[in-house]
């Protein structure tokens, strides 16, 4: 195993310090000044050096503001531990001992030759100490030391090095200040960490495993500053870090880091600070606007030079860039209110109302305090424009400010808060959306306004609450809206129907569809028509009238793509999958994902990815399905959609079962089942049960598999799902037949056969033919198997085709038709190996051996023997990720990762991560 890096992203700095300590042990001293902006890890590097200084005498100190004007206060703090050595040092002259003693006695006067005598005395004292053991001197924040102490340390540091015999290392640190370093001392300048190192710091300082999406967001917010990472992590709960609950919006401030930044800002001239405040007040401060702002404020643009020289800001063609986001926040938040308002008013005067309406309105609003009807309207109009361009987060903030500026009781405030909540939800900020809804509901005038707010509340609950509660809220909203706004009422009923589907309560879905049908005459928009067609189609399916579902399903598939909306494309994807048009289902789902991303509608992305994963799964693209489900799981977690995350976990468990990954399948399925049980989510509960049953089937536990699926068929709302129970019938038929329960298998098949026949899908018809084969004997079974394979040949589901070949080959072997059996089994083995369905490949090899033909090993790439999940773990481990970090990224437990790595090492014939890194490209 490779050792953990003590400070992520600082390998070269750590090497430099270790080399200096090793040189001191060999009698060669040296000095180094570590410099960089606040929070980059200067103190951590000095502490690392002290921790590595075994056998050294360590002297440490730190500059502090209150003592910066006290001569020799820094040396007094540094040398007190060795004060007793002064009488024992005959190598020092009487005058040197007296000079050092005066410092240690706290005498601040400065005799005429003290400026020369004391630095030399310090150097000689360090040399004396080094005769017993190497000496390490560490002084943090040397820029805050009093000037005489700083000069004495610089004098000593410049004279170390070479083979002079002084086994002394002096390490100093300072801020990013042009006043330092003193000439003649080597400098190590720290830069911001890259995103990978910053994300690693998150994992190091967090008390729990951090979800990948959370880790990446915190790393981005910290902008490469490890101190910011530490403060952000400390401000969050375990559930927020683990992705169980959404992050606060906005993220909490990093107060210690802001204070460190402000120390440098306060030292700047007044005109410089005024210009910095103006720049901090505008998110998009380009150079032209800065020049105009300085002129408008009567300031010389050259006043910004001290801030540039100090490295606080950089001005280029793209505009003004602050050294760190926390610096900008500190400058703005600590400025007096009057000055902030003046900066906003100035910027509002400079921005063009036609070309920059939202920015201008925003600054006008920030410059005012009292409610303002006209300004609120201006901000609302600008927010609507931003929303159409996909800026949901920006639009939400603008709507919220417009609500704060609203006057009167005409419902404008509630309307604007509702818009702010809706756009916050679309931007993936569910916690913020709930807060805004809580503020909007008490002021909402009339049934229409309250119905719209209840619709949004139900929509959020559908994704992160109890399905039954979401159903009730959405149905209430629909009834409230029906006489006032039929179009919106249809949307509410559609969402209520989705809540019924999520809960696995098809009776509730049927009730919603029946109540929505009379609205077809009043709600005539293309989107409402598609929703009503969808409700009608699924009602027919739940009632077993599959033929009646075909026309409305095709209407959804035809009408939805004409609507520029991710939800409509998702409905089209579902319709295509039900009809057996898997390719079209993939296209519609992919379009929904792309459209949601393009609009910034982050809450729609996980849902679109659900059906994209299903479509990839049905067509045998298991790697793509796994990637989509993992991405959907991260997106759902990041946007506070616990129910969506549960659904993706269940889908991943089903894929794990296919790949034969028993431990991961059980972990993910149980996690999904726990959430499903708490929130009444029948759909992910059913998928998880199917996954566990399929795993049992692959392990030869046929009775267990049949028992699980029998229970699934009988499960009520919140525990099962009618559609999943129907889709899993071929799995149940196989398990039941193997346990001798053929009559039960025949009864179950009667629910699957009519649906398969109604879709005319080759894949569905092939599965039906396979079920008939399993329920038949002898030549009749062979005939059904051949029919199934002919249908598979024009279908998409390569995995199911291989399973049919395996079952057919096994039948042929039992009937002593070995040559024919081998042909089917070879084809099945090739497919299973390509799809990394390991358990099924093992069954197929066993069948081949039973025919008298040993299964030949196949040539592979270095990681070709691994499942898709194992490949992900192997590559992350090869890149240096810890087990804990891999677990957080892939939503596993560290113990599961450890188990997988053991299997990976065995399969690839390696013994360590170093060998793994050398093996994998």
Automatic annotation (TrEMBL):
Keyword Phosphoprotein set for record: no
Keyword ATP-binding assigned: yes
CDD domains hit by this protein: LuxR_C_like
Segments forming domain HTH luxR-type: 859-921
SMART domains associated with the record: HTH_LUXR
InterPro entries the record matches: AAA_16, P-loop_NTPase, Sig_transdc_resp-reg_C-effctor, Tscrpt_reg_LuxR_C, WH-like_DNA-bd_sf
Region spans: Disordered: 848-869
Alphabetical keyword list: ATP-binding, Nucleotide-binding
A Pfam family matched in the record: GerE
Positions with biased composition (Basic and acidic residues): 848-861
Entry protein name: AAA family ATPase
High-level lineage: Bacteria, Bacillati, Actinomycetota, Actinomycetes, Micromonosporales
């Amino acid at each position: 195993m490779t050792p953990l890096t003590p400070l992520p992203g600082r390998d070269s700095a750590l090497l430099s310090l270790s080399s200096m300590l090793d040189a001191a042990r060999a009698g060669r001293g040296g000095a180094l000044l570590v410099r960089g902006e606040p929070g980059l890890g200067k103190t951590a590097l000095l502490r690392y050096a002290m921790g590595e200084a075994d056998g050294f005498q360590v002297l440490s100190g730190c500059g502090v503001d209150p003592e910066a004007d006290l001569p020799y206060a820094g040396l007094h703090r540094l040398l007190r531990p060795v004060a007793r050595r002064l009488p024992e040092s005959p190598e020092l002259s009487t005058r040197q001992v007296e000079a050092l003693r005066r410092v240690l006695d706290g005498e601040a006067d400065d005799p005429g030759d003290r400026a020369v005598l004391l630095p030399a005395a310090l150097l000689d004292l360090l040399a004396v100490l080094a005769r017993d053991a190497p000496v390490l001197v560490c002084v943090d924040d040397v820029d805050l030391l009093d000037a005489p102490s700083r000069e004495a340390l610089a004098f000593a540091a410049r004279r170390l090095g070479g083979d002079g015999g002084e086994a002394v290392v002096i390490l100093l640190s300072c801020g990013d200040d042009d006043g330092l370093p003193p000439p003649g001392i080597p400098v190590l300048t720290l830069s911001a960490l890259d995103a990978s190192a910053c994300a690693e710091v998150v994992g190091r300082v967090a008390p729990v495993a951090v979800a990948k999406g959370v880790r990446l967001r915190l790393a981005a917010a910290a902008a490469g500053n490890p101190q910011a990472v530490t403060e952000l992590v400390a401000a969050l709960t375990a559930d927020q870090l683990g992705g169980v609950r959404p992050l606060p919006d906005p993220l909490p401030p990093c107060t210690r880091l802001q204070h460190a930044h402000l120390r440098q800002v306060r030292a700047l001239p007044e005109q410089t600070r005024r210009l910095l405040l103006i720049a901090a007040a505008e998110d998009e401060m380009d150079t032209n606007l800065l020049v105009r702002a300085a002129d408008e404020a009567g300031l010389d643009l050259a006043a910004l030079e001290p801030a540039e020289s100090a490295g606080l800001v950089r001005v280029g063609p793209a505009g003004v860039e602050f050294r760190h986001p926390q610096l900008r926040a500190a400058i703005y938040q600590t400025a007096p209110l009057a000055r902030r308002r003046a900066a906003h008013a100035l910027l509002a005067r400079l921005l063009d109302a036609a070309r920059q309406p939202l920015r201008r309105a925003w600054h006008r609003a920030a410059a005012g305090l009292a409610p303002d009807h006209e300004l609120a309207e201006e901000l609302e109009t600008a927010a609507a424009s931003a929303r159409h361009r996909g800026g949901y987060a920006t639009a939400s903030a603008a709507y919220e400010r417009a609500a704060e500026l609203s006057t009167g009781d005409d419902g404008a405030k509630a309307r604007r808060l509702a818009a702010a909540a809706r756009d916050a939800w679309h931007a993936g900020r569910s916690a913020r959306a709930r807060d805004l809804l809580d503020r909007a509901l008490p002021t909402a005038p009339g049934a229409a306004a309250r119905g719209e707010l209840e619709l949004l509340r139900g929509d959020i609950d559908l994704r992160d609450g109890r399905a039954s509660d979401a159903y009730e809220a959405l149905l209430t909203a629909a009834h409230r809206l029906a006489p006032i706004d039929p179009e919106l009422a249809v949307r509410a009923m559609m969402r209520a129907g989705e809540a019924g589907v999520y809960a696995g309560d098809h009776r509730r879905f049927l009730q919603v569809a029946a109540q929505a049908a009379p609205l077809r005459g009043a709600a005539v928009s293309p989107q409402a028509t598609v929703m009503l067609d969808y409700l009608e189609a699924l009602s027919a399916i739940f009632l077993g009238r599959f033929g009646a579902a075909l026309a409305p399903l095709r209407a959804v598939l035809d009408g939805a793509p004409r609507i520029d909306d991710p939800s409509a494309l998702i409905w089209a994807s579902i319709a295509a999958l039900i009809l057996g048009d898997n390719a079209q289902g993939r296209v519609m789902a992919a379009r929904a994902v792309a459209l949601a991303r393009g609009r910034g509608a982050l809450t729609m992305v996980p849902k679109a990815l659900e059906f994209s994963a299903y479509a990839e799964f049905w067509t045998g693209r298991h790697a793509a399905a796994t990637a989509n489900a993992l991405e959907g799981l991260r997106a759902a977690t990041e946007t506070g959609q616990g129910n969506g995350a549960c659904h993706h976990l269940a889908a991943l468990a089903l894929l794990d079962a296919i790949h034969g990954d028993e431990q991961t399948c059980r972990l993910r399925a149980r996690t999904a089942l726990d959430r499903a049980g708490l929130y009444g989510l029948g759909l992910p509960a059913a998928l998880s049960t199917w996954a566990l049953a399929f795993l049992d089937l692959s392990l030869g536990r046929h009775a267990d598999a049949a028992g699980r699926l029998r229970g699934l068929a009988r499960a009520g709302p919140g525990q099962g799902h009618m559609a999943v129970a129907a889709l899993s019938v071929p799995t149940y038929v196989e398990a039941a037949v193997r346990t001798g329960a053929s009559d039960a298998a025949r009864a179950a098949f009667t629910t699957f056969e009519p649906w398969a026949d109604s879709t005319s899908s080759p894949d569905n018809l092939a599965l039906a033919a396979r079920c008939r084969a399993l329920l038949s004997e002898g030549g009749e079974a062979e005939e059904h198997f051949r029919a199934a394979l002919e249908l598979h040949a024009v279908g998409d589901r390569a995995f199911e085709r291989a399973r049919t070949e395996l079952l057919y080959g096994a039948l042929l072997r039992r009937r002593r038709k070995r040559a024919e059996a081998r042909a089917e089994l070879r084809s099945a083995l090739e497919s299973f190996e390509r799809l990394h369905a390991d358990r099924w490949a093992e069954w197929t090899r066993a069948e081949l051996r039973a025919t008298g033909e040993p299964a030949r090993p196949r040539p592979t790439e270095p990681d070709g023997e691994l499942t898709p999940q194992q490949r992900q773990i192997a590559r992350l481990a090869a890149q240096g990720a810890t087990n804990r970090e891999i677990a957080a990224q892939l939503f596993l437990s560290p113990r599961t990762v450890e188990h997988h790595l053991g299997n990976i090492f065995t399969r690839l014939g390696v013994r360590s991560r170093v060998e793994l890194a050398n093996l994998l490209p």
